[in-house]
Specification:
The structure holds three protein chains of three kinds. By secondary structure, chain A is mainly alpha-helical. Chain A has 13 helices and no strands. The longest helix of chain C is centred in the last third of the chain and has 18 residues, at 462-479. Chain C is globular, with a radius of gyration of 25 Å. Classes of the chains: A mainly alpha, B mainly alpha, C alpha+beta.
């Protein structure tokens, strides 16, 4: 690794930029959410609270101070790891996020696994058997999938598998009688694996099927298309043709030579899809009553719960930018031609 | 004229899917334009005693929870959805283009500032920002357009910037600069026209995304308001009757799906034809 | 084919999603609820979500019996009120213990209520506005000294479960911390009620078990365990009730009840609450400052069709006080739907050519949407253009609190704080209670109404008091400051083997768990 030092310097630079970006994100959201109509002190005190109660609470929450002071106070808190208190749930926002975020991670991770397990092989088959029935079907299906509103697909799946076939649950993370597995990661699938709670494992997987499928559909289509087109491009290149003419088995050519190079551009696309999935999760969580940060964000926004909105924004921005950074670094690791 | 038809015929033969998409899109546009004069029921006429009726001869797509004809609302909803998405794409691309071209051409501080600003907008899901802005502005068609444009412009700004960077080194621009042509005229008559076509192609391709995002915003209840018919808003209400009135969510969703599919198919054809540098993006 | 595929999948997954017919254990009552619970602190909580838990685990000095309209003893056995109404002396039940073993006595009452008043959030005003001091007379006697007196409805105020639940003094002192125990009481209940909280998985479920030391004893029919399941999705809730996974399903929307019609073993219950749905008209500015326009609008409202918004389960409100509450009067006149009269009144007021008005409805009160769109369609016929705007609770408060931003028409709900007509009429129609101080959204300031309301709070004779209230209601109808739509119904559906449930409109989201059992 000749370039290790260069790479470290690159990562440090990116992290510094990221910090500035995150500060910008917080600033933007802070000021946008503070001009939302509605008096948070009033809501926190309860709509029937007496004016003096509201004022007392306003002072306690620091909402009577000028906006720039509130801003400074908030940013100082974030630096200390204090995200403030939600006026809706009456808990520290960090506690809320700790509870809701794992559900979103679980959902998006499963959606991503579906995308990769189905999208990449489908893309390879489409490319290798170009213009075959499979290729045509997969192309039509992926065009259809990117044209479909995620939330509508979710609703249709609920109608089909919950209402008519009655074989899959429509909402929630676990069945009615089950208690969540012993808390370790907050991801029910992992937690039940760790604690050997097979009932909870099976049930949480069953509950993931519909929301993860609905969420994954459009990203899966994008990944299929990307894999197909980049593999086609590589297969037409000289060295692949040479390898073929040398009599190497087709499988070897594809798997060993072509695929590695074809997957490289897909990596960026996959990284971008993490962001798409996170955004889509907002809607899917609403449809499936999935207790993740998307649902939390929607509830917080209508309740003018500033601190909660800021917390959600911060955590999604970190994940979003973090994934981008990792993708860029990986890109360099895999492809030695890239220099930072 | 004859050459045109021949060309069209060939195009249909080579790209049947794109042709089908374009034809469907044309039909949807016509329906949307002609909705007021079509023999449809009044999309706003309430009849509480006819609420939630399944599809029948009188109501081919059934009725909603206020006894309104869903067919009529789906057709009229096309007007709203198409209008909002066209205006969003137009606003976002014009603004983004202005910022991006300027930043790209001047470089330096202006460029750095623009890049860092767009970084912020692109650093988290646009839907969350759009939700917050929509709450600030209140519900309605115009706030929806503003909210979505605010979220979308950075994409166009980035694209325009890269175009400007590329063209500002071009010989004809250098020449113009050397002869003392004012900067704004260089921007207007050299950089802009040369950057326009990839931007326009991108904007066309983004129409589908715009329709989906508009529908998403109304689906959370932050978009277009009653009694205006809009597909996402219909789904938002219909969701509450998912198990008892399947038609309520099925048809508006189908309308979104078919429209976006048509745009994507036609757009794919267009892109293959023009083959510009395209980009991938997140919602 | 479809079934076989389904069976295979079920077998494959090893779990059945919804279809299996289940039944809950005989000694356990499983209740599905929709309301959110964010804190269990009786000093802070001011939401409907707390109803079931507070009634399972906490008790108050007195309760209100809807059927008789009378105040009944709970932790207080009897009480004396001084002639001038300044002192309320309560003689307490003896031998009562809290879940943590602490004894219930006069000091416990004082500790609990002093805490509520010191924290002074949410429901505390119901004590701080009226009570000057609480004194321990002896172990079993506690005396309340009133700030302003006489205040006739005070006992009814004490029957509210908001703010009036008595928590254990030991728990209060031991867990005070630096926030007066708010952290502790957020997720702990230490009361004297028949059931004690054993588990709370936030946002999911609460489990209560019978408290062996309950003063009421455990002879007779009771359940031993209560499970409150929060179910976000009401269609799921209906299916769970149908399959027997739930004993009681609270809050299934009216429109969804059709899916339960005729299902074996399911009893559908729809009850009118003391919460009313209304449209406030802005009497201070714009066209609605003219009473003729307000009356015209009152005639333009299609009351019969509006009942369909509530799936036909309810009837238009007569007067302002919902049926079942003292002071409700069926003989009061009421507006009927008559577009000709409406048109004529508009013409008289100079709006023959029509006018434009804005109507808001609150996201969390979804009937407002359909009421508004229905009315909008009706008003089109007489040239009135109604703009229907959705607002969040926050937005609603922002707009109604400021006279400049107050919409012409605002749909809203009012749920009573305590079961007395003054809890409807005073906050909604007394001139002193314009927002943000109170809930008089129309900003009606009729001195005659104010005088009657002031007098009725001091009138100890119930008959005379009701006469005064009838008079106030007539005046309000003439003033047409609101469209009075209906009492909002709630649904409480249950399995047919559930016995002993009595609906209480004053505490509609709660259950008389101690009396409920399964056959």
């Amino acid at each position: 690794m000749l370039d290790r030092q260069v790479m470290v310097r690159y990562i440090v630079k990116r992290l510094a930029l990221l910090t500035i970006t995150l500060l910008g994100v917080l600033t933007l959201t802070f000021f946008v959410s503070h001009v939302v109509p509605g008096d948070p002190a009033r809501l926190a005190a309860g709509v029937r609270a007496r004016p003096e109660q509201v004022e007392a609470l306003r002072t306690r929450l620091g909402l009577d101070r000028p906006l720039w002071q509130q801003y400074g106070h908030y940013i100082a808190g974030v630096v200390r790891g204090d995200l403030g208190e939600s006026i809706r749930t009456r808990r520290p926002v960090s506690a809320d996020l700790a509870e809701y975020f794992p559900a979103t991670v679980e959902l998006t991770a499963f959606a991503m696994i579906l995308c990769l397990l189905i999208g990449i092989p489908l893309g390879i088959v489409s490319a290798v058997k170009r213009e075959s029935v499979i290729d045509h079907v997969s192309r039509v299906a992926s065009t259809a999938a990117v044209s479909m509103p995620t939330f509508w697909l979710g609703l249709l799946l609920q109608l089909l598998f919950f209402r008519w076939l009655q074989i899959l649950p429509a909402t929630g993370r676990l069945g009615f009688y089950l208690s969540p597995p012993a808390h370790a990661t907050g991801l029910y699938v992992l937690d039940s694996l760790f604690s050997g709670n097979w009932t909870a494992l099976g049930d949480s997987l069953v509950h993931l099927i519909l929301p993860a499928t609905a969420l994954a559909a459009s990203s899966m289509a994008v990944i299929t298309r990307m894999t197909r087109s980049s593999l086609l491009e590589i297969l037409s290149l000289d060295y692949v043709r040479t390898a073929r003419s040398k009599g190497l088995a087709e499988k070897v050519v594809i798997l060993k030579h072509a695929l590695r190079n074809a997957l490289l551009p897909s990596l960026t696309v996959i990284g971008l899809q993490v962001g798409v999935l996170l955004a889509g999760a907002v809607l899917i969580e609403v449809v499936f009553s999935w207790p993740g940060i998307g649902l939390y964000a929607v509830q917080s926004i209508t309740f003018v719960d500033f601190q909660a909105i800021l917390g959600v924004t911060l955590i999604t921005a970190i994940v979003y930018s973090g994934v981008n950074l990792i993708v860029d670094v990986l890109y360099g690791v895999i492809d030695p031609r890239i220099h930072y | 004229m004859k050459a045109f038809w021949e060309k069209l015929g060939r195009w249909i033969a080579v790209r049947p899917l794109a042709a089908a998409g374009a034809a469907t899109l044309l039909a949807i546009l016509l329906l949307a334009l002609l909705a007021p004069v079509l023999p449809l029921q009044d999309p706003q006429s309430v009849n509480m005693h006819d609420k939630l009726l399944p599809p029948s001869a009188a109501h081919p797509m059934g009725t909603d929870d206020l006894g309104r004809d869903i067919l009529s609302r789906v057709v009229n909803g096309a007007r709203t959805s198409l209008l909002v998405s066209v205006v969003v794409v137009a606003c976002a691309s014009v603004f983004g283009m202005g910022v991006g071209l300027t930043a790209g051409y001047f470089g330096g501080m202006a460029d750095e500032l623009m890049m860092r600003t767009t970084d912020i907008f692109l650093a988290f899901p646009g839907l969350i920002l759009a939700m917050a802005v929509a709450v600030v502005l209140g519900p309605g068609v115009v706030p929806t357009i503003v909210a979505l444009s605010i979220v979308w412009w950075p994409w166009y700004a980035r694209l325009a910037r890269s175009e400007a960077l590329m063209h500002k080194q071009a010989d004809f621009v250098e020449a113009a600069r050397a002869t003392g042509v004012p900067t704004w005229r260089i921007l207007r008559s050299h950089i802009l026209p040369n950057s326009l076509s990839p931007l326009i192609v991108q904007a066309t391709l983004d129409m589908g995304y715009a329709i989906l995002t508009t529908a998403s915003l109304s689906f959370i209840g932050l978009g277009v308001q009653e009694p205006t018919a809009e597909w996402g808003a219909m789904l938002n209400i219909g969701r509450k009757y998912l198990l008892s009135a399947w038609w309520f969510i099925t048809f508006p969703g189908l309308a979104i799906f078919i429209t976006v599919l048509a745009i994507n198919l036609a757009g794919d054809g267009l892109r293959d034809y023009l083959d510009p540098r395209t980009r991938k993006r997140g919602a | 084919m479809r079934t076989r595929f389904a069976c295979c999948l079920v077998a494959l997954l090893g779990v059945s999603a919804v279809s299996a017919i289940a039944s809950t254990p005989a000694d356990t009552l499983v209740v599905g609820v929709v309301e959110e619970v964010t804190t269990m602190d009786p000093a802070i909580d001011y939401t409907f979500g707390s109803g079931p838990l507070f009634r399972a685990a906490y008790e108050r000095l007195v309760t209100f019996n809807t059927a008789s309209g009378k105040i009944e003893p709970q932790l207080a056995l009897s009480w004396d009120v001084s002639d001038d109404g300044q002192f309320y002396t309560f003689h307490l039940r003896k031998g009562v213990t809290f879940h943590d073993g602490a004894a219930f006595n006069a000091a416990a009452v004082k500790t609990a209520y002093d805490r509520v008043m010191t924290i002074n959030e949410g429901p505390a005003w119901m004590l701080t506005s009226y009570v000057a001091a609480i004194d321990v007379v002896d172990d079993a006697t506690v005396r309340f000294t009133m700030k302003t007196y006489p205040f006739v409805p005070f006992l009814r105020v004490l029957s509210s479960y908001w703010g009036m639940c008595i928590a254990s003094p030991t728990a209060i002192t031991q867990n005070a911390g630096d926030d007066m125990g708010k952290t502790f009481f957020r997720n702990h209940i230490v009361g004297t009620g028949p059931y004690k909280l054993v588990e709370w998985v936030e946002g999911q479920q609460m489990v209560f078990e019978r408290f062996d030391g309950y003063w009421g004893g455990w002879t007779g029919n009771h359940v031993n365990r209560i499970v409150l399941r929060k179910i976000l999705d009401t269609t799921t809730m209906a299916l769970l009730l149908e399959s027997g996974d739930l004993d009681i399903a609270y809050g299934i929307p009216l429109d969804e009840l059709t899916s339960l019609n005729g299902k074996p073993g399911v009893v559908i219950g729809v009850h009118d609450t003391f919460t009313t749905n209304m449209i406030a008209m802005n009497t201070t500015k714009g066209p609605l400052a003219d009473v003729r326009v307000r009356r015209a609008l009152s005639y333009s409202f299609d009351y019969a069709s509006a009942m369909e918004v509530f799936a036909g389960y309810t009837t238009p409100l007569i007067g302002q006080i919902p049926a079942g509450m003292p002071g409700h009067d069926d003989s009061l006149p009421h507006y009927v739907f008559d577009l000709d009269v409406a048109k004529q009144l508009l013409a008289e007021a100079g709006y023959a050519k029509g006018l434009s008005l804005e109507y808001t409805w609150v996201t969390e009160e979804p009937e407002g949407r359909r009421v508004g769109v229905l009315w909008q369609d009706t008003l089109r016929k007489i040239g009135v253009d109604l703009k229907v705007t959705e607002v969040t609770v926050a937005g609603h408060w922002d707009r109604v609190s400021n006279i400049e931003t107050m919409p012409d028409l605002a749909n809203y709900r009012w749920g009573i704080d305590y079961p007395d007509p003054s809890s409807v009429l005073v906050p909604l129609y007394h001139g002193d209670n314009a927002p943000p101080a109170g809930y008089n959204l129309s900003r009606l300031a009729d001195p005659r109404v104010n005088a009657i309301l002031d007098a009725s709070g001091k009138e100890p004779d119930e008959t005379k008091r009701l006469q005064l209230l009838a008079e106030a209601q007539s005046l309000l109808l003439t003033g047409a400051s609101n469209i009075w739509i209906t009492a909002v119904p709630v649904t409480v559906c249950m399995r047919s083997n559930v016995q002993g449930y009595v609906f209480e409109p004053a505490a509609f989201s709660s259950f008389n768990f101690y009396d409920i059992y399964k056959k």
